[in-house]
């Protein structure tokens, strides 16, 4: 089994790469700064293939080539928390990359399993969520207008839920929605089909737990089958 990881040097992404490698899964990482993975490369020499660049840089045709021998693609992309990261280009990093991955899978005419890192600020577009209160809805709408990364996350999850759907010929997917991203060791966590709490009573999600669930989705067919086409809300077990 082989996995292509996008965004593999971020706070969650590098943990995902490490978790996959620890499970003896072959990993390709398309990354702008290969030196940030030097420690993992030193440990997992033949198991880790580091490719300089980004999906948006290399384009659909080259990305399709990278995906040809991969069963999974994993996107842990996010925006850097700086002025240029939030308001600079590319403003639709996550959405544009997810769409490009799906187009590359169609180019290959081969089923691809895609996992993306979403957020608890994104509702499932299938209408299954408990309606948010007026205040919470207003805040999220303002965030979409004023904070481009939130709009980007919403568009990416909506694209999978509505444009790709649950029965696409070439792409199946899971969009994982953590709450606050915390440092710390792996611990027990729970998965909810719908959002378990609102914006004003946010839960906690440790980055190590997020990475572990990504690894389970890749390694364990029964876990993938349980969450395929869904947007699980991942929370630390209290």
List the helices and strands and how they pair.
Layout: E1 2-6, H1 13-22, E2 26-31, H2 38-43, E3 48-52, H3 55-67, E4 72-75, H4 83-87, H5 93-108, E5 112-117, H6 134-146, H7 148-164, E6 171-178, E7 180-182, E8 189-192, E9 204-206, H8 207-219, H9 221-227, E10 233-236
Helix pairs in contact: 1-8, 3-5, 5-7, 6-7, 8-9
Report on this model:
The protein has about 240 residues and is α/β, with parallel strands linked by helices. The chain is built from 9 helices and 10 strands. The chain has an 8-stranded mixed β-sheet, sandwiched between helices. A two-stranded parallel sheet has the order 7-9. Helix 1 (about 15-20) links the parallel strand 1 and strand 2 (about 25-30). Helix 1 (about 15-20) packs across helix 8, helix 3 (about 55-65) packs parallel to helix 5 (about 95-110) and helix 6 crosses helix 7. The longest helix has 17 residues, at about 150-165. The radius of gyration is 17 Å and the shape is globular.
Give short descriptive properties of this protein.
238 residues; globular; two-stranded parallel sheet
The description of the largest β-sheet is: 8 strands, mixed
**Alpha-carbon distance between the two ends:** 34 Å
Give the number of helices.
9
Query: Low-confidence parts, pLDDT < 50 over ≥5 residues?
Result: none
Helix content: 40-55%
Going across the major beta sheet, what is the strand order?
Answer: 3-2-1-4-5-6-10-8
